[in-house]
Structures are given as structure tokens and as C-alpha cells.
Amino acid sequence: xxxxIRSRIDHATAVRDVREYFAxxxxxxxxxxxxxxxxxxxxxxVDPNRITATDLIAVSMLSVDxxxxxxxxxxxxxxxxxxxxxxxIPHDLKFEDLPTESxxxxxxxxxxxxxxxxxxxxxGDKWDVGQTTASKIIARKRxxxxxxxxxxxxxxxxxxxxxxxxRLWFSAFNDGSARGETLADELRAIRSEADxxxxxxxxxxxxxxxxxxxxxxx
Length: 218
Prior knowledge:
Layout: H1 2-8, H2 11-21, H3 53-60, H4 68-77, H5 79-87, H6 100-107, H7 112-121, H8 131-141, H9 151-157, H10 165-173, H11 183-194, H12 201-217
């Protein structure tokens, strides 16, 4: 999968795509509402261990909506359990820096992130939060640690649904190329040239692959 991802990223094209993603139209509105996914609501008084109404609105910037029943469950019924699980996932961890033992502890089977994913999906009493929406909710709270999943990314890199996706991405980030440059090195360079220093490397990769995938769909 690592080689497949690297082969899909053309450096110059990715830089252009990330820049365009954060462009503003002549009327002052964003070219893509997703450009506000990370920053909506600002950083002041943001609790990294609690999902808020602003977080759910931010998720809508990525073209998905959280159903009303799910919103009530997330903001009220399950709020304390969600906060407990988020507290078990350090907010300053970065996916590209994770050693294997930390990956297993925070993202592996039975980890806090894995439990949070299951809670958001509500398999036992479905409230219509699919794998794409769940990924975007968690990515809003842990942008440097949890990748966004959607059908466009799935098609571009040949994923087979969201199962084991975190482990597959982890493998991709930890495989070096023949010249010794890693996927993280390439993404840092793209982020720097696109002048979007606030972005996580996961989000740089997401934007680059998503824009590529949308072109291939047309």
C-alpha cells in the first residue's frame, strides 16, 4: 500500500491542490468549506477531550451531516464516556511519530480510539453514523493522529472499507523509499510549499489524494 500511495502523489500537483483547497473566491467565500474543518471556532477555550456542537458543525464542512439522534447521543447521553475515551488519547501525538507500541496502545484493537470508533458507529443501536462520518468526528479532535476516511480516498489507494485502515496507513508512513525518503518527508515538503503550516500530515495527504480522486471520477 505504501508504494501505491507514493506513486499516486505527484509533488507539484499536490502542492497546487493544497493551495487551491485553501483559496478564497471573489465573493470572499472559501473555494472548499473543508478548508475550515480544522479551524472553525478558533483554538481558544477548546476542550480536546470533549466533542462539542462546534465540532459537529465543523464535520459538516467536509460534506457530511451528523444525524439528530447521533448528535444528541454524542453531546448528551454519551458525552462523559466520549470524554473518558478522548482523555485516553493524548492530543499532542502525531501519527508520523508513533512507534509500534504507541500505535497499538492508542489506535490498535481495544484501544481508546478503537472504542470511540465503535461508540460513534453504534452497531447495536444504529443512529446512522457511517465510517466516513465517524472518521471525520475523531479527526476533528485528533487531527494529527486519526486519518479521514471516505469513498474517494478508498478508491484512490485501493482500501477495502475502513477495517484495518489505521494499521494500513501506519504501515505506509513507516515504509521508506529506495532513496530513504519517507511518506512523511514528502508530505512535510508539500505542506511547506503550499504554505499551510497548521495542517497535520494526515490532512495534507487526505487533501492531495481526495483532489486526485475527484479528478479521476470526472
